[in-house]
């Protein structure tokens, strides 16, 4: 071992095996863009904060997101068969916290303080998102603790000259940090 390597400390999560601790510690080094998935209508709306969003293909335009099977959003996504991915900007940190369930907010409560609109499917879209992708559900693949959700993008919008909210090493960041 040299100055550039270290092993995860089991003291952080003693219930996890060493391999899982090492994986978790290494994944903390992977910077991610912060998005919120939004689904549903009115009081039935819910959603989650996610860094697992990535592009799948351009032709056809598809993306994927991995969603924990034990969470409250996977059921509505499978039922509605439509959702939106909203890529956040630095001033959306409170929205990111709300959709991560901080403060115990659930369902439609997580939408407070945001400016919401719609594109094609009717899924809620954050009006000032850095980018927003309106999707219909193309496939859902259960694997381990998560479901790999594939969305066919039917509409998208962007905010020009804006910056992303990032998540790295357990905290929110922006490009200037
Ligand atoms: C920065 C960040 C990234 C996250 N990424 C994901 C993700 O990609 N997939 C996921 O299932 N949960 C992810 N989560 C956790 C969910 O946001 C969180 O478990 C969920 O909103 C809890 O809501 P629930 O208890 O109603 O299911 C992330 C949380 C944070 C703070």
UniProtKB/TrEMBL annotation:
Keyword rRNA processing: no
Residue intervals of the Flavin reductase like domain: 27-174
Domain of life where this protein originates: Bacteria
GO molecular function: FMN binding; riboflavin reductase (NADPH) activity
InterPro entries: Flavin_Rdtase-like_dom, NADH-dep_flavin_reductase, Split_barrel_FMN-bd
One Pfam family here: Flavin_Reduct
Zinc as UniProt keyword: no
Keyword tags: Oxidoreductase
Record family assignment: Belongs to the non-flavoprotein flavin reductase family.
PANTHER family: FLAVIN REDUCTASE, FLAVIN-DEPENDENT MONOOXYGENASE, REDUCTASE SUBUNIT HSAB
UniProt protein name: Flavin reductase family protein
Species whose genome carries this gene: Xanthobacter autotrophicus
Upper classification of the organism: Bacteria, Pseudomonadati, Pseudomonadota, Alphaproteobacteria, Hyphomicrobiales
């Amino acid at each position: 071992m040299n100055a550039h390597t270290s092993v995860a400390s089991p003291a952080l999560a003693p219930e996890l095996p060493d391999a899982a601790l090492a994986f978790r510690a290494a994944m903390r080094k992977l910077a991610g863009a912060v998005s919120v998935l939004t689904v549903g209508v009115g009081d039935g709306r819910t959603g989650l904060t996610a860094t697992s969003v990535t592009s799948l293909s351009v032709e056809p335009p598809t993306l994927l997101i991995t969603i924990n099977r034990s969470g409250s959003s996977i059921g509505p996504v499978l039922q509605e068969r439509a959702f939106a991915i909203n890529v956040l900007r630095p001033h959306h940190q409170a929205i990111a916290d709300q959709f991560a369930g901080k403060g115990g907010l659930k369902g439609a409560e997580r939408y407070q303080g945001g400016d919401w609109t719609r594109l094609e499917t009717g899924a809620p879209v954050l009006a000032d998102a850095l980018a927003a992708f309106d999707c219909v559900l193309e496939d859902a693949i259960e694997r381990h603790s998560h479901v790999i959700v594939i969305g066919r993008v039917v509409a998208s919008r962007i905010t020009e000259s804006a910056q992303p909210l990032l998540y790295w090493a357990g905290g929110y960041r922006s490009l200037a940090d």
